Amino acid sequence: MEGTEPKQGTRAPYLHSLAAPLPLTFPPGWQLSTLADFPASDEHVDAALLAREALKRPHDCPPLDKLLRPSHTVCILIEDLTRTSPKHIILGEVLSILSGLGMPDEHITILIALGTHRPLTDRELRQTFGEATVERYRFVNHDCHGEDLVPIATLPGGTPVLINGLAYRADFRLGIGSIFPHPLNGFGGGGKILFPGIADARSIFEHHLRHAFRDRSALGSLDGNDFRDEIERLASAGRLDFIVNSVLDNGDRLRHVVAGTPAAAHLAGTTLCRQLTSRLFYGKAEVTVISAFPYDQGPQIMKPLAPASMITAKGGTIILYADCRSPLPETYLDACVRFRSEHGGALRQAVFASFAAGRPILADAPPELNMSMAQTMLALNDFTVILVCPGMPATDIGRLGFLPAASMGEAIDLAAARHPTATVNVVPAGGVILPVLTCQ
């Protein structure tokens, strides 16, 4: 872990953007507490080599060539395009092992673990995994509303949990995903490839509403995390046999690959990821300045509110910079306006009351949109949020409940009017970071 100690003469604060680094100039009354940047790295990583080495030495089980026979049927669950891991390379190494065993191509199904996300088009499949691979093997988009869903367990409230029948009927289930800090599950990867990856919409939604943002269901949290514990239980019930996970750094770049049983491999991967993405903060600050980089798609730009909320004093101000390449849905903006008008200054209580009642903030929207909106409302309950987002109309920023600013300079002026003197935390890239506080 690295951080900038609160000393005079420290490095000049800046933010990452899609175009170029953005230098920051602070008023005289502001004191930089922590500049949580990461060392620049242009290190080349051979994804195929890392995958081969991981598959030769899996955690807590023999290699695949010892676990499988040519007569077995295998369902490979693989993450969709919302993650930047080299999934096509990892898949190629797995398929090479299966082919080397003499396993017929028709015994292998590659199931895109979409959860409630949209299906991949044929063009996206071919661009991502290659023409030859798509022609040779059977690729299927999971449908969370599909008819071929099979019960494997129940949620605490009695709701059945269903998974894709292709995976259920296979002799062996192998998941290909990636590990990175996650605002609810602690870290991505592991059992998430099965649940919610190939589960039914109803159980996914109920699980998220029951556990999201409660207790230890938080960024980087593993022990006592009910959100994660439920996922691990369901992954076991769904007989997820083996995983191969990419471990990503702060820039969503591959640094390691782990393989083996879901529990053991994921634990090893989260340990590596924690080392890569943790940054030390010297306490909560009155003002946090954070970039959404590398996220740039619609509701994804809200993800940095999770780490920002961890390092900002209650009643403080968060300045969020975001390059947004796709607009926020009108339904999202309208729901933010409606929720704030209905619940005023009691947004936190309202979010939890709605979720406890099994009632989403935005009806008929997938869980990821509702989780994004909940994160937005929770941040607004505790902080003032100023958003600098080139290309987003100021009226839309206002509908979110944020204060709009046309530039970082204007945003800093707005914050300085509220905090003439302040300690300041700066996070140049807030999309993938795990804050560690030395004091509360």
Short description:
With 440 residues, this protein is an alpha/beta fold. The protein has helices at residues 47-56, 64-67, 87-100, 122-129, 131-136, 165-169, 201-211, 226-237, 262-277, 305-310, 330-343, 347-356, 367-382, 394-400, 408-418; strands at residues 14-15, 22-23, 30-35, 74-78, 108-112, 138-141, 149-154, 160-164, 172-179, 181-182, 186-187, 242-248, 254-260, 278-281, 285-291, 312-321, 384-388, 403-404, 422-427, 434-437.
CATH class of the largest domain: Alpha Beta
Taken together, the total number of domains comes to 2
Q: What global shape is seen?
A: globular
Number of strands: 20
Instruction: Note the total helix count.
Output: 15
Helix share, percent: 25-40%
Class of secondary structure makeup: alpha/beta
Enumerate the spans where pLDDT stays under 50 for 5 or more consecutive residues.
Answer: 1-9
Strand content: 15-25%
Report the CATH superfamily of the largest domain.
LarA, N-terminal domain
